[in-house]
From TrEMBL:
InterPro entries: Ribosomal_uL13, Ribosomal_uL13_bac-type, Ribosomal_uL13_CS, Ribosomal_uL13_sf. Pfam families: Ribosomal_L13 (PF00572). This is Ribosomal protein L13. One of its GO terms (molecular function) is structural constituent of ribosome. Keywords: Plastid, Ribonucleoprotein, Ribosomal protein. One of its GO terms (cellular component) is cytosolic large ribosomal subunit. Belongs to the universal ribosomal protein uL13 family.
Length: 143
């Protein structure tokens, strides 16, 4: 009979990855981030098991999209009140909050349950190249 071996949480040290979003395509880096958060690049990958991997994204304001998505990609939300439907383009959203587009893109690629919400907390996004995680041992993640 085959047995699945789970490493203990105390033994598994968190791995830190850093990805530079400068001049990278939004979809490409989002899929790489989601796969890393899920632990699919780890040899001990098991669905539903929380991998001890954290991802830091720098230069989020310089992420790009292809084609005419800058003007045609829409982000919709509703307040729940009558007349509370708001629509903004990619360009407007990146001007107001540069990391919102990456957050939403990665969040929609993760599972829609408590496990996905826990994984999402392991993502750190910064709009420029400065971040407070310089003392960590960071591995470069390339899309």
């Amino acid at each position: 009979m085959n047995k699945t071996i789970f490493p203990k949480q105390s033994i598994a040290h968190p791995q830190w990855f850093i990805i530079d979003a400068q001049e990278q395509t939004l979809g490409r880096i989002s899929t790489k981030i989601a796969q890393t958060l899920l632990g699919k690049n780890n040899i001990l990958y098991t669905p539903g098991y929380c991998a001890q991997q954290r991802v830091i994204v720098v230069n989020a304001k310089m992420v790009k999209v292809t084609g005419k998505k800058k003007l045609h990609k829409l982000y919709c939300r509703h307040t729940g009140r009558p007349g509370g439907f708001h629509v903004k383009t990619f360009e407007e959203i990146t001007h107001l909050s540069p990391f919102y587009t990456i957050e939403q893109s990665v969040k929609r690629m993760l599972p829609k349950n408590p496990y996905g919400r826990k994984l999402f907390t392991k993502l750190e996004i910064y709009k420029d190249s400065h971040h407070p995680h310089t003392h960590k041992k960071l591995e470069k993640l390339t899309p």
